[in-house]
Design goal:
This protein is an alpha+beta fold. It folds into four domains: 102 residues, Ribbon (Umud Fragment, subunit A), CATH 2.10.109.10; 63 residues, no CATH class; 224 residues, Beta Polymerase, domain 2, CATH 3.30.460.40; 66 residues, no CATH class. The protein is built from 20 helices and 16 strands. A hairpin with a 5-residue loop joins strand 12 and strand 13.
């Protein structure tokens, strides 16, 4: 007959068992060996005790709060909390995790992310510097977690190039590297076909973003890509659709934003841009780059920017993502690699244009942080906050960051009750630009304004009642982050 967990700990002082759930991911994974020991000192917030519910179910979650002597528990990979857990229910506390023969300490989610991030940054730094990583340091790493985080930031191939200089490449990294190489080769072949057709049709074009940046990496496939972006003559979008469909592509989006999207199985996707930015989202950037064609260097129908203008463009593009859903470690690596490959940029020109684009501060922070990060220099607290934000963003940003940054914008970075009341009042009583944009007829005929105050709530209650309630709740509960980036 199997002994109960509490009996084993009572007899032996320790319990070792195999984890089967994912509620504490990524700290704990399925099939990890968990070492539970008897509680020898008062539990505190951050500890991970094993406790038994009145139903008889065993649970291993983290203490997130202690309220009147009772514990509030939550899994790291869960959103809901469990309150009123008493000392009588506590069986033991997690003291170690064994994975793939290595023993890891119990960490908070932040400590865990920081440790894996340090290892990832170290390996990526080795990759772009073409140095062999230290074998002893690799031995201490949790490579399964490095793989997970590198995937979130599209840096797995770069890590693979570093690891293979020191150890036999683990299967997952090997496959990711080979996939990156294959994908770039496929994109190159297809892009050559597309540009050949554009030239036949006498349509000017310019490759963007990763197509250009990869050339500054020691190996092009270190910079993974999910798609290819090409700027073209905006007056020829209809002709380009004919060309792309003639090459076997399906048009997934047409004339909706500033780019059309074309895909071809199994993995090819091209974004064909008629402008570099979408005016409704980034009007300043859209206006600044609207006449980019006049600044391009042209060879036949193939165009390219000067190094300075390309730097301005990809920084603006990065800022767009950073200020919305967030931008990850690959963006920092792009800045570091590009500036290392182009040390003689015209700083006087750049400084003037960065001021016009209103991203002088952002560029300085990105440049300094990327240089320090990938050379191993000590970071300031402000730089650590920015890095934490970028690590939490992953490569494509998060909905959580998007919502937070939106709230910061609409509340003017002020989470006070007065600011929230002002915002809600302005949402009800439209005026100025908001009134002109949404109801230009009423803005012109002010006598209709009282009718609008009646019409809008009724319309909202009918068309999207949940949206109104959700917006009110989001505004009321919003709190500015302590370590704001």
């Amino acid at each position: 007959m199997n002994k109960k967990f509490e009996d084993i700990i009572s007899e032996q002082g320790k319990l070792v068992y195999t984890n089967v759930g994912n509620s504490m991911f990524p700290l704990i994974k399925p099939r990890d060996l968990l070492v539970i020991e008897a509680v020898k000192k008062p539990l505190k917030v951050g500890d991970v005790p094993l406790y038994k519910r009145d139903s008889g179910q065993y649970v291993l979650h983290r203490i997130v709060e202690i309220d009147n002597g009772k514990y509030v528990m939550k899994g790291d990979n869960r959103t809901e909390v469990e309150r009123e857990v008493a000392d009588r229910q506590i069986i033991g506390v997690l003291t170690a995790i064994v994975r793939n023969g290595k023993t890891f300490a119990v960490e908070t989610p932040q400590e865990h992310t920081e440790r894996i991030s340090r290892d990832l940054v170290y390996l990526v730094s080795c990759a772009v510097s073409e140095k062999a990583p230290d074998k002893a340091r690799i031995k201490e790493m949790d490579l399964s977690e490095v793989y997970r985080l590198s995937g979130a930031h599209m840096l797995t191939s770069a890590v693979a190039f570093a690891l293979e200089k020191t150890i036999p490449l683990p299967h997952a990294f090997d496959q990711s590297k080979k996939k990156a190489i294959r994908k770039i080769a496929l994109f190159d072949i297809e892009r050559a076909k597309i540009t050949r057709e554009l030239e036949k049709a006498e349509i000017w074009y310019m490759p963007l973003k990763g197509i250009v940046l990869r050339n500054d990496y020691p190996k092009a496939s270190m910079r993974e890509m999910t798609d290819n972006d090409i700027l073209v003559d905006p007056s020829r979008m209809k002709d380009i659709r004919t060309i792309m469909e003639g090459l076997g592509y399906t048009c997934d989006m047409y004339e909706k934003y500033n780019h059309d999207i074309y895909s071809k199985p199994p993995t090819l996707e091209f974004e064909i841009h008629k402008s570099l930015f979408y005016g409704d989202y980034m009007p300043l950037f859209d206006e600044y780059f609207a006449d980019i064609k006049s600044r391009l260097k042209q060879n036949g129908f193939a165009c390219r920017m000067s190094d300075e203008d390309f730097y301005l463009y990809f920084l603006s593009h990065t800022y767009k993502h950073y200020s919305q859903g967030g931008s990850g470690l690959r963006s920092l690596l792009d800045v570091y690699v590009f500036l290392r490959a182009h040390p003689d940029l015209n700083r006087e020109y750049l400084n003037a244009e960065l001021a016009t684009l209103e991203i002088t501060d952002f560029e300085q922070k990105m440049r300094t942080l990327s240089q320090k990060l990938f050379t191993g220099a000590e970071l300031t607290n402000q730089e650590k906050n920015m890095l934490d934000y970028m690590i939490s963003s992953g490569c494509a940003g998060t909905d959580e960051n998007l919502e937070y940054n939106h709230m910061m914008t609409i509340l003017g970075s002020d989470d006070s009750k007065a600011s929230k009341r002002r915002y809600l009042k302005n949402r009800v009583f439209l005026s100025g630009e908001a009134l002109q944009k949404n109801y230009p007829f009423v803005a012109k005929h002010k006598s209709l304004y009282p009718l609008l105050l009646v019409f809008r709530p009724i319309k909202g209650a009918i068309t999207h009642p949940k949206g109104i309630v959700d917006e009110y709740k989001r505004v009321k509960k919003f709190k500015k982050r302590k370590n704001n980036h």
